[in-house]
Structure to design on (268 residues):
């Protein structure tokens, strides 16, 4: 099997990581593209002593670290939306270290062990765990929101609501259909939406989110058992995507990161 064939299954998830790290689909994809170009240009330098996924993320991390060290905006010309996101990120980064955010995403969202995450960011496992703790504490301190949950499975909805409240956020409502979700959002405007895709009456959480976003902008996290349906590269994709069955830590990380780029929660 060629190196390209080994890496292909992991690319959608590296793109997810890139988007979560930068807060922008286009910006994140640029880093992924740069990593792939580096691999194509020098295939002999690709790490062969680790599994392909780890080597792929390692290459991405080297590109990210080098670019941000040499030129903070070298790969950033996404336009006004991305510039706004970067302004929000910069305001938050003044209050926390980017390295701790990388440790959080790599472990809680991408599922790497502290040891593997340490390999990716050049720290040992204990340091990674300390960075994750630091990131969660700082982001949770910075971000407070009112959350709308769109989920038709009662047990899952209760679990998500508990996670949300444990993080210190309020829940504006739990909707099980598209119409309920839109009505709830219009009645009590949320600062974050957590949305399943398949809803109780066979309506779509994607359509519910589109209806809500047509009225006002709000960060959205999609929750689905079929993430590949939203990671096609053929249309605008969700920045934050959680795969079912999910870990509580994954939901916490996604909520923290979604709110990380939301300017309404930046402390004065």
């Amino acid at each position: 099997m060629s190196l390209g064939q080994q890496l292909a299954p992991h690319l959608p998830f590296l793109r997810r990581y890139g988007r979560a790290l930068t807060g922008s689909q286009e910006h994140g994809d640029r880093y992924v593209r740069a990593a792939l170009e580096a691999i194509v240009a020098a295939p002999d330098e690709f790490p062969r002593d680790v599994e392909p996924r780890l080597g792929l993320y390692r290459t991405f991390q080297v590109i990210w670290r080098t670019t941000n060290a040499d030129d903070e905006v070298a790969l950033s010309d996404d336009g006004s939306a991305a510039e706004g996101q970067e302004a929000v990120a910069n305001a938050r980064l003044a209050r926390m270290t980017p390295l701790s955010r990388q440790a959080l995403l790599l472990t809680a969202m991408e599922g790497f062990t502290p040891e593997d995450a340490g390999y990716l960011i050049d720290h040992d496992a204990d340091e990674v765990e300390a960075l994750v703790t630091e990131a969660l504490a700082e982001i949770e301190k910075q971000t407070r929101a009112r959350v709308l949950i769109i989920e038709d499975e009662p047990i899952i909805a209760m679990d998500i609501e508990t996670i949300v409240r444990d993080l210190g956020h309020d829940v504006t409502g739990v909707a099980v259909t598209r119409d309920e979700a839109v009505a709830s959002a219009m009645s009590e405007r949320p600062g974050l939406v957590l949305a399943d895709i398949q809803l109780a009456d066979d309506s779509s959480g994607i359509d519910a989110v589109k209806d809500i976003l047509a009225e006002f902008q709000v960060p959205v996290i999609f929750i689905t058992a079929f993430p590949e349906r939203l990671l096609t590269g053929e249309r605008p994709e969700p920045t934050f995507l959680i795969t079912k069955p999910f870990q509580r830590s994954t939901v916490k990380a996604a909520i923290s990161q979604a709110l990380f780029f939301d300017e309404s929660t930046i402390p004065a």
User: Anything to note?
Assistant: The longest strand covers residues 170-175. The mean pLDDT is 84. The domain at 3-140 is CATH 1.20.140.160 (Butyryl-CoA Dehydrogenase, subunit A; domain 3).
